[in-house]
């Protein structure tokens, strides 16, 4: 009997794996040198490049028994690509580091690559390079580049009293999905499948980043740690108080009510504190023409001697909010 | 008695650690937005950006009992910055991902940051952003950006018959240092301290990358896997045969002879196959005016029906050469 081919990452070898992976990445108009050399070369027609990096660790940011390889790839790419959008930039390219055990099935690495490429396609970007190394645990690092196309970058520090607080994209869906996966009830996972999927693969509103910048947006972040916590970064950087109206968030809560009922959970915790959503939140001048899907959820007021921060109006804060990688 | 402050990464918390780390990074002229927002923004005056990423894993690429945190930071930065030089570009910025256990001393993370910043200073680049996440093992990912300043990128595929094969920077020193650390003899580590240090902190000849490009260099790589293996990538990409003269490498071997004698090792293995050196190797037209420190070590000849590859002239190949992350 012929020996079975070794279909693990280790069996394929570093160079064999890299060859198979890079064969899956499409070339794009702004990709001047693609994968396979010491560096990629990407067009930066604006004379500036926005750059951000994120790391995902198996067991912390994803679980191999919950997510397919394609889903992990999409989530890893989305996390960094959303940061680019949150500067008001258009994502152009990502480079990827993969640390993986030799025993990892090669198909998993290829699925990851397909997921990275698929999410890049949604955002208009390309996978242009990477590194593959040995490790006892799967770790994926994604660095994303973006083109500001002449725009000023939209920072966290630009909120001014009188601005509206705005959100583009859903809130609390990823947190609801995480709760569903943690509960592990197959019937509920099936019944609320779109929410479970929203945890495994977030859907950042990429185009809304540049659109909010063009609309005069004064500050912008992506919702990675939770709405109130991320708006808190804006408040601190801007030295202002952001008042969020609970009433303006009812629509997000209502959407999650059925799932929250089924799990005995508080949907307000998900909407106010749920991370990994990668929607966009920030501030814009009151009365500005906002891009489609943008909702006004509050206003910026002067700190007037108070500590900068976020205040929820019309409702008491839920007990548990936010996410610190070395707390909670 | 007052409780002792918790001086671990976990005790400081994600945001506390990020605040302390980013306080250590100097601002630079090309850094338009530094650490602390969703993205950094870096000048790309050339309208293109070179980008590369590398991942280092504790126990695979560095050992906490061999290397200080500063040394790990310098090595992690050097590895990516050398890839930028190997395109003929000048490094401008890096972003860094750190995955670390909550029990890691915060001082280690700060030392790593100092090392990253120090190596960037050598290369003329800046640390502009990063991510910190929880993991059971230390993993460091570094993505470096570079400016081609109007140059064509020097690819692996440009070697043509008649070119000289060239090297800039030392060879085999990192491999000798690795052998010293593996042997673990304190007296030898002391006697050959510069070689041991060369393993912990490589010294890529950053300026030689753009200089070789300006000299008309036709191909360029950094020596990360071993001279013959990395030149093999050039040979394959160029469809040519690279003949390397053993005689031209004697100087590198002689420098390592004392250490090799003491360890009972073959210094030719180190010079021909030693990785993680991050010197530059490639090809340039015969007779080109080469930058200081560049040595001609061979020539490019037509494949003429042979498989592209590297041939060593004047000496038999040592038995063990090269490095594959999922082999050897």
From TrEMBL, chains A, B:
ATP binds at residues 130-131, 156, 224. Mg(2+) 2 binds at residues 54, 83. It is an enzyme of class 2 (transferase). Mg(2+) 1 binds at residues 53-54, 131. Coiled coil: none annotated. Mg(2+) 3 binds at residues 38, 83, 222. CDD domains: ThiL. Keywords: ATP-binding, Kinase, Magnesium, Metal-binding, Nucleotide-binding, Thiamine biosynthesis, Transferase. Mg(2+) 5 binds at residue 225. Catalyzes the ATP-dependent phosphorylation of thiamine-monophosphate (TMP) to form thiamine-pyrophosphate (TPP), the active form of vitamin B1. Belongs to the thiamine-monophosphate kinase family. This is Thiamine-monophosphate kinase. It comes from Motilibacter deserti. The lineage of its organism: Bacteria, Bacillati, Actinomycetota, Actinomycetes, Motilibacterales.
């Amino acid at each position: 009997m012929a020996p079975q081919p070794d279909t693990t990452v280790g069996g394929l070898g570093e160079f064999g794996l890299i060859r198979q992976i890079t064969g899956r990445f499409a070339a794009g108009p702004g990709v001047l040198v693609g994968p396979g050399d010491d560096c990629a070369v990407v067009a930066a027609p604006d004379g500036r490049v926005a750059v951000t990096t994120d790391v995902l660790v198996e067991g912390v940011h994803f679980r191999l028994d919950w997510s397919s390889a394609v889903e992990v790839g999409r989530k890893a790419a989305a996390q960094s690509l959303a940061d680019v959008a949150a500067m008001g930039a258009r994502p152009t390219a990502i480079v990827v580091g993969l640390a993986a055990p030799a025993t990892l099935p090669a198909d998993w690495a290829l699925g990851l690559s397909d997921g990275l490429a698929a999410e890049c396609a949604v955002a208009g970007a390309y996978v242009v390079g990477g590194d593959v190394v040995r490790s006892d645990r799967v770790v994926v690092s994604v660095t994303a580049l973006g083109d500001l196309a002449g725009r000023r970058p939209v920072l966290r520090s630009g909120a001014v009293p009188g601005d509206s607080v705005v959100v583009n994209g859903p809130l609390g869906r990823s947190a609801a999905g995480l709760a569903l996966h943690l509960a592990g009830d197959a019937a509920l996972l099936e019944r609320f499948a779109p929410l479970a999927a929203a945890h495994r693969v977030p859907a950042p509103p990429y185009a809304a980043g540049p659109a909010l910048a063009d609309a005069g947006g004064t500050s912008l972040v992506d919702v990675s740690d939770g709405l109130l916590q991320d708006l808190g970064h804006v408040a601190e950087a801007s030295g202002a108080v952001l008042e969020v109206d609970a009433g303006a968030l009812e629509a997000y809560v209502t959407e999650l009510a059925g799932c929250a009922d089924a799990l005995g959970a508080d949907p307000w915790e998900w909407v106010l504190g749920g991370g990994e959503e990668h929607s966009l939140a920030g501030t814009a001048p009151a009365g500005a023409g906002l891009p489609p899907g943008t909702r006004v959820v509050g206003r910026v007021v002067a700190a007037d001697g108070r500590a900068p921060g976020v205040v929820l109006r019309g409702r008491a804060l839920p007990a548990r909010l936010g996410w610190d990688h070395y707390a909670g």
